[in-house]
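fold description:
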Amino acid sequence: MKKTVLLLPALLLGLLSGCNQTPAPEQLKDLTQYVDPFIGTGFHGHTFPGATRPYAMVQLSPDTHIMGWEASSGYHYDDSNIYAFSHTHLSGTGIGDLGDIGLLPYSGTNDIKPVATFNKDTEHASVGYYAVRLDNFGVNVELTSTDRVGFHRYTFDDPKDRRVMLDLGHILQPNWGHRVVGNEYLMVNDSIVEGTYKTQGWAHFHEVSYRIVFSEPIETLYQYVNKELRNDSLFVSIDTKEDLKFHYKFFESDKPLLVKVAISPVDTDGAEKNMEAELPGWDFDAVRAESERIWNKELNRIQIESNDPAILKNYYTALYHSMIAPFAYQDVDGRYLGMDKKVHQAPAGYTFYSVFSLWDTFRALHPLVTIINPDLASNWGNVLVQGYKEGAILPKWPLASSYTGCMVGYPAASVLADLVSKDMVKGDINTWLEAGQQSSIYRADLAEKFKGTRELDLITKHVYYKEKYGFVPADSISESVSWGLEMAYYDWCIAQIAKAAGNEAVAEEYLKKGEYYKRYLDPETKMMRPIMGNGSFRTPFNPRYSSHMESDYTEGNAFQWSFFVPHDMDNFITAIGGKHELETRLDTLFTTSSHIDGEKASADITGLIGQYAHGNEPSHHMAYLYKWTDSPQKAQDYLDYIMQEFYLPVPEGIIGNEDCGQMSAWYVLSALGFYQVCPGDPVYVLGRPMVDSAKIPVKNGVFEIIAHDNSLENKYVKEVKLNGKTLETPFITHQDIVNGGTLEFYMSPTY
């Protein structure tokens, strides 16, 4: 097969922008030493420990768990089997997919589907590198990667029996409907194979093309179709929906076997170009060292100091996890598969990304990136708007160029509004406004277009009811309260975009919709209650009740949803009876029993302090709400507890699903001492810094944070100064940060 190879230096299409904000090389600290990729792989964190680079398409990791909730990333720390080393993964999600192109080296067995066993003592993970010994096969495995190429090094105990399985039937969570729907496979020569692997699952339309190059020629090929050995010549081509497994046996040798696997979302030509551009050679150790260098540069976007080793480890692992997703889903030649399932050519300066867990990440991850990597944040905004241009609606949880309807509302509006509020729009703001408007109304045209696919989940009747009645009737559809509250916030966000675009009529319309949250506020209980179609509150009412995907609240209950009015706090406080009543309600939230009623209560409700649930995103802003009361020190009490108890330097150290960086981004910001309660309003609430000091390179210099007399005992903030001036209120603006300067906390054991 003759192909034209286009060699492009990786720097021309670098995944990471805004590099001018990182310190100069001579100022870089060795921060990779504090990253432990195993943090979050236990409990329900659902992270993976494998090799990747920042925001990279290849995330090469062992698959130890392929079915059930704990298989969302393909790995769980408690496991001792490895089914394959695959090249794409999700970090911390509650639903699984990907796990594409699985390889497994083995020896000493003729099993069609060999399974490796391993001992934790031989497992090692660091930034850009993973290693393990397969005990039952006598093989030492090492993994590293570039942005689009996975690199394997296998060292066999038995030089006479060196084999590798390519499992093209390997998928994650087949019990949840994930399945292989097609395979195109070609053996190019005796050391190169390529093909396109097609699956349907959470991503309804998913294809990954690949090119695999072995460092040595294959001696013998065994190919299995539906577990039956097929006897063909060495140079074989197959196009089938059947289960495929290829076993390659190599000649006797004492040398390690090296394997390069390039992937592409477009085609095998793209995979070949990706490999030629990023990994033309065979120097495994050099690639690993380059990954470490790249990660260290990215981690230096925030330089902290702390006398507590646990804080350093928690912090830089959290920062690492905040840079796993979204990932660039584009070939080195600029081609990508758009939301319309067509191949597009990216214009200069634009990179297409996928895997936006927006319902989670609008809260902290995206605000964090606006500070430490503004060019990347702006590009992500353009990606979301481009998704609207290609698919006629803003993505909600885009996965592998597929829409998914996962989670609540249209959270892309929050990300766009926050960029607008921080003067970070790169593009036509009127198109941004149009995208928000068209995504906030019920789209019967798209319901017809998406019929028969998982993408139909994007079009729900919650939006229809909101537009028709001003509320979502609980007797017509589930999760009505959560949708009603979040849509009110997202509509307020659209109003902010309209204001910036100079469209006062649209701004006024959406500001009114932003007040629809008031419809759910029960003046008697001071909680957000479900409303029936006749306008009455649902009775009986149990604020502790949860039923996953079946109750009136998404992944929670009334306690965990009654404080979501980030865009209208002053009016919300007045409506419930003032600052004292807000404090009373918060006190009840944090001190009441942690018992959850309901046989089908959501497993996402974790990290409980009373009914506050830090393991899930709806609670993430709540401790900061004490800053709107006369007892702001209570925020520092709870923030201190959350950061000390729910973030630990152990595998089970993340208290809930990592959710593509949101859990970690919350810690990264909160440990600095501030958090943005309302993206779209460029104001940060001050909290309790855990770090002793921090330096963040910003557009106009360096923003420095100093926590004087900071310790675990001195958890209260006695005074705060910004550039030498004492702050009268516990708030700073985004402009205060990007202007550079010094934020000083004066810590005390008492308030």
